[in-house]
Design brief:
The protein is of the alpha/beta class. The chain has a 5-stranded mixed sheet, with helices on both faces.
Length: 514
């Protein structure tokens, strides 16, 4: 058996092996370690397997031996199933309490089942394996497995008044095909797939923290403006962007075919603006037959600094499964309001909203406040991101990509990618009176990947004066950029960030207000 033959077996038999290991070790983390070690042993000794068709039974014995070795070292406690997901959107308090009590009774009944029945139920109802696949792996005939499943259902019905024990069992194991998980991009989506969570997983591909946005995301004129901007500043092909928008918007039109939709997001502006948009769309579409849930975190135990969900392993993401909270009227209204204010041509709408109560979405306030701090400062005309870049350049001897790595930690609330970072570098280095300069004379543009990786930036004399408060960025060139739905253009910005009060204010020199 060659390596190319082994990899598909790993993908196919990992869930089955995990079921066996969890049953014997009673701990998901230890079960994962045991399965990984078992696959290592199987790979090292793969040439001793003469008949590839015998792999299921051969590998099962390796898993069982590895579990036996681990149990000899220490006694392991059992880990209860997480019940965080049981609160359902739209249910009364009495209904939620009833569901929790019912699920707890089912947990206790499931735990009391004989081990063979419990394993068969997990593989069949949760993982969705056929009787034939289970038979090959467990070394048990299909007729025997049918009897175990029948006995498991009968025992559960006898233990508690459940009309459909199989359906409730599937719900207990974190849902299934009727769940839709929407993540903050492809990296988190891939990790979530690796976790083995049930349901369909969709990566939402957008960067609402960059460029013009409009309250109605489906507006063709607004979408064209945004597509042109992204192509000019990030190099995103217009046609590809428009096609991707249509595809993911179509997914929102299919919500009614799911029983539950779970949104997976984190604390930075990249995520919070995306979350606000989706909540705005959900509030508008009103999928009343669908439970809506939210998992949104700003930290994870043992991960420092926590940048985002993409840092986590499949196992770590899987541990979050079921900890999501129901999305109710307050979350939908606040999310919709945040999006409309963020997408407004008047950013003071967002400032006024942040002055109020935003506790329904606990991580939103700091992320959107970080957005407002990107506006030109009343002190020197620099936005928070620009100032952070100039401060890094003043330290000297840093290549652009090195600056970016430090920047992502220092300014993590913005959630910027490298293309957005380069766009800001371009603005600072290419305005009529530059604030930054490339130390290599033949480096014309930081959008060049080789330049970004190797080129070193330095403050210009004008950049140093601005950073020291002796000059204003506007003296070196006019503004022309977007901050959400607000277009800042010309020699005098209409809005200025006041670093002392921590608020966005109207520029009285433009508005005429004192």
């Amino acid at each position: 058996m060659e390596q190319s033959d082994f990899e598909p077996l790993v993908r196919k038999f990992t869930p089955m092996a995990m079921a066996i290991a969890r049953e014997k070790l009673m701990d998901s983390g230890d079960a994962e370690d045991a399965v990984q070690e078992a696959f290592t042993q199987a790979y090292l000794h793969r040439h001793s397997l003469q008949d590839p068709g015998a792999f299921p039974g051969w590998f099962r014995r390796i898993v069982e031996r590895q579990c036996y070795r681990m149990t000899r070292r220490r006694k392991l406690p059992s880990a209860p199933y997480d019940d965080g997901f049981l609160a359902a959107f739209g249910e009364s308090l009495e209904e939620q309490v009833e569901r929790r009590l019912e699920a707890e009774e089912l947990r206790q009944s499931l735990a009391s089942l004989p081990a063979k029945q419990r394993t068969a139920a997990e593989l069949y109802y949760w993982r969705g394996y056929s009787l034939g696949e289970m038979s090959a792996f467990l070394g048990v005939s299909p007729s025997t497995l049918k009897k175990r499943l029948h006995d498991a259902r009968r025992s559960l019905r006898r233990a508690m008044p459940v009309a459909d024990a199989a359906a409730m069992l599937k719900e207990l194991y974190e849902g299934g095909d009727d769940m839709l998980h929407i993540t903050n991009g492809d990296c988190a989506a891939q990790k979530l797939r690796e976790s083995g969570i049930g349901g369909e997983i969709v990566a939402w591909r957008e960067a609402y923290n960059h460029g013009p946005v409009f309250a109605d995301g489906a507006d063709k004129d607004g979408r064209e403006i945004r597509a042109h901007y992204l192509e000019q500043t990030l190099g995103v092909p217009r046609e590809e962007y428009l096609s991707a928008c249509e595809a993911q918007e179509a997914k929102l039109g299919e919500l009614e075919r799911f029983g539950e939709v779970v949104l997976w997001f984190e604390h930075d502006l990249y995520d919070q603006s995306m979350l606000a948009y989706l909540l705005h769309e959900l509030a508008r579409r009103k999928p009343e037959s669908v439970r809506l849930s939210l998992l949104c975190i700003g930290e994870y135990p043992g991960v420092e600094p926590f940048i985002g969900l993409g840092q986590l392993s499949g196992r770590q993401l899987g541990a979050l499964s079921g900890t999501w909270q129901p999305i109710g009227k307050e979350q939908l209204e606040l999310g919709s309001g945040l999006w409309e204010a963020y997408a407004s041509a008047d950013p003071m709408r967002l400032q006024r909203l942040l002055d109020g109560d935003t506790s329904a979405l606990p991580l939103a306030h700091d992320a959107f406040r970080a957005h407002l701090a990107r506006f030109p400062s009343s002190r020197d005309g620099l936005g928070s991101a620009e100032r952070a870049i100039l401060e890094l350049a003043r330290e000297g001897n840093l290549a652009a990509d090195g600056m970016f790595r430090i920047f992502t930690v220092k300014m993590q609330l913005l959630g910027m990618g490298d293309l957005q970072f380069r766009h800001i570098l371009n603005g600072l280095a290419e305005q009529p009176e530059p604030l930054l300069a490339w130390m290599d004379g033949d480096c014309d543009s930081p959008s060049d990947r080789a330049v970004f990786r190797e080129g070193t930036l330095a403050l210009t004399a004008f950049g140093r004066r601005v950073l020291d408060g002796a000059a204003n960025r506007g003296e070196g060139g006019e503004w022309d950029d977007w901050y959400g739905g607000a277009h800042v253009a010309g020699s005098r910005p209409a809005w200025l960030w006041d670093g002392q009060t921590g608020r966005l204010e109207e520029n009285s020199a433009v508005s005429g207000k004192d």
